[in-house]
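Below sits the subject:
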Amino acid sequence: MEVEKGHSVKQEASTNSVVYPSKVGLELLIPFFLIFGIAIVLSFEKSSLIGFIVQFGIMFAFMALFFSISYEVTDDVLTVTTFFFIKKSILIKDITRIVESNNPLSSPAASLDRLEVYYGKYSSTVISPKDKAGFIKHLKSLKPEITVKMKKGQE
């Protein structure tokens, strides 16, 4: 299996596994840093060490959340991992289509440059792999029937 830079490959008992990290977008990071930066500065102005520690801890937790999101593709399952241990598994045989999206709703995606993966009869999840083209190509190699709709007309 050919794997591009930025992905990790695991071999587990005859199952190939490729992990695609989430793209982290500045459109989410900049407002996040502004809000927490102002809160931390205000904590300093009030000489509140506890306030500073709480704000810094919350900011650290959110940063860990942003950088812990990943999407693992095996021969049978797409596993969405958030915060290192929260996992959602989707059977690849159940995936019907992938649509490019900028949906801002809460999802396991650290960027607004997103893909909505539809599976089952009415289910979907919004994700943001750093390598969208490689991710889609990988899923289509496992299930060619998946339809793909990109905003720029790419497929």
Q: What stands out?
A: The longest strand covers residues 15-21. The beta strands are 8-12, 15-21, 70-73, 77-82, 86-91, 95-101, 114-119, 123-127, 147-149. Residues 26-45 form the longest helix (20 residues). The helical segments are 26-45, 49-68, 132-142.
